[in-house]
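Lab notebook page, bench 4
Experiment: in silico fold of construct C2
Operator: M.H.
Input chain length: 104 residues
Purpose: comparison with the prior construct
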Amino acid sequence: MPSYLCKLEHKGQAYYLEWSTIVDAPTTYGMSLEKLRKFVEEERGRYGIEELEKRLKRVEQKGTSAHDNYITVDFLIAGNRAGEGNRKLSKKDIIEKYCLNRPK
C-alpha cells in the first residue's frame, strides 16, 4: 500500500502519521517522533529504519515524505476521505480526530 509519512502541528506539538494514498486518509494516529521510530521498526524492520532518516528529512522540509515537491500536507488533506462515510475533513478536524482524541 503506497503511503507517506506526514507531520501535523498543533500548539507547538508535532504529530507524525502514516497517510495512505489508497484510502486518502491516515492509517495511524498521530504519534511523537520517538513513537514513530518504534512503529517503523516494528512494522518495517531494519529496511524501514534505514529509510526513515531520508523520509524524515523530506517530512521536515515540506510536511510529507513524498518525493514529489508538490505533495505537501495541504495537498494530501485537500482530497482526503478521513471522516465518517469517507467524508472530507478539514486539517483542524484531522488533527482533532487523529492526534488530539486518539485512543490511549
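Observations: The first helix runs from residue 33 to 62. The mean pLDDT is 93.
Next step: discuss at group meeting.
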